[in-house]
Amino acid sequence: SSIIAISSASRSHRAAFSRGTVFWARAVIMAMMCVCLLGAMHAQAMRIEKSESQGSDDGAVLIDRWKGEDARVWLERQLAQEPDNPKWRFLLSQALFYLGRYADALAAVDALIEDVPHPQFHGFRGFIAQTIASTETLTLIESEHFRIFVDTDRDAALVPYIQDVLEQSYQRLGKHFGLFPKEKILVEVFPTTGTFYPASSLSARDIEVSGAIGICKFNKIMLLSPRNLARGYRWTDAISHEYLHYLIVHLSANEAPIWLHEGIAKYFEDAWRLPESSWLSRRTESLLAHALANDSFVGFKNMEPSLVKLDTTYQVQLGYAEAASVIDFIIHSMGSKGLARILQDLSEAHGDGATGAISRVMGYEFEQFEKEWRQFLQSKQLQEHQGVRLPRFTLKEGDQIPAEDLRAEIESTTARMHTRLGDRLRQRGRDRAAAREYNRALDKDPYSPYLLNKLASALMTQQRWSSALQYLERARMLAPDYVTTYTNLGRLHVALQAYEKARAALWEAVQINPFDPLIHQYLAESYRQLGMDDQAQQEQQLFERLQGSR
């Protein structure tokens, strides 16, 4: 599943943020963005020395808690009394930025620079201008509770679905956490890595190693379009994951540490579509079982300042597994109300962070909490499953899908040899012989979803539907986010006239990579046969649009 970054961190952890983008607060631009490296100029621009701060810091505190409108009102009231105060003027430009009013933020900091040409202000101005440039092709789509900016040309395949995913997240997660924000939440979907990197501060390394394809900071959600990855990613869960970070910031007054943030977001990221969390996947269970057996946990302290910055994909995945398992333990011990009480305690700013909040809510010291959590994991009798693989997030080069790397898809050298032979046979129309070669490859690498789909596709060409279905179901079990499996399942069920099953499989494909025209072709047919004419027309139009752009 996707690994998503969160850019908020508790003020109690800010001392650890010696590098990275820094957040302006209490008239001192304090470090809060735990995954960001926007560069030295931007970092410098967002620091104001404490010696320059005078008077109350309510405006900075409000910005720190992502209460941009309240901060704007407070700061404008201060400026009515002290119109030339550079502290209030700078904070106002930041409050406007947090409201998504980029042009107003730019105008405010420009006016400030005219009077006080400080290099720090120039740096912040550069970041605002860069954000404006990164979002200039985006069009506003407004739903009841969200302001969604998306490139409706390049990312047309997202447009029919993104509002529903966010609104379902709003309702279902609101019931879980008792928070239904009144302000409309800003969401930006970036069409290219070139626009995403400067706006989010994430890098190609963060995406391909850590899977950080979304981030929540600056009081908004930012997401890289799944069109940029070779096989897409579960973008629907990703955007819901980021919305969870937004809720956590507001529920905890931005005091939650990274491990608590990521644990909650990971545990509940699929709650918008499922009645119960599926956080304990085969991969997650295997990672936790291995860590228990070898005493090789990442550890809460090592998750700071960001899981995304851990060295390897394995460490990142294990960190998310650990964090989610802690949430599972809290809910098992205290119920969902216990989790809400921890966030409420954090919002009261007792000064001892999550360790103190957990101690007060759970009734024992944090060291005991860690022991109880490990015993809880031991009691689950977790197992390492065969064939579990770490996720791969391969970026496209431009709009080109990278050539298939059989070494990445298939572990066995002999299996790769049989696969190449099978591909050549299929090109000659010899599907039966090709299926035999794919079977031989599977004997050597029985856990490859790539091979399972190769074999299923060859069998479907021969109309051997039941045999193909067997292999596709195995592929789905082994790799639930492998998009090709769902496309093939949709094709198979359409052929068998099982249109509701086809619709369900193809909806899974849409959640991962909606830019494949075949998905929408099969969906259009399924909806037509199910008597859902409006949906059929929508999918047909999307199919024709995507097909025409190729």
TrEMBL record:
InterPro entries: Peptidase_M4/M1_CTD_sf, Peptidase_MA-like_dom, TPR-like_helical_dom_sf, TPR_rpt. The chain crosses the membrane at residues 21-41. Keywords: Membrane, TPR repeat, Transmembrane, Transmembrane helix. SUPFAM superfamilies: Metalloproteases ('zincins'), catalytic domain (SSF55486), TPR-like (SSF48452). It comes from the Bacteria. TPR repeats lie at residues 415-448, 483-516. Gene3D superfamilies: Neutral Protease Domain 2, Tetratricopeptide repeat domain. Pfam families: Peptidase_MA_2, TPR_19. Signal peptide: none annotated. Residues 208-378 form the Peptidase MA-like domain. This is Peptidase MA-like domain-containing protein. The lineage of its organism: Bacteria, Pseudomonadati, Nitrospinota/Tectimicrobiota group, Candidatus Tectimicrobiota, Candidatus Entotheonellia.
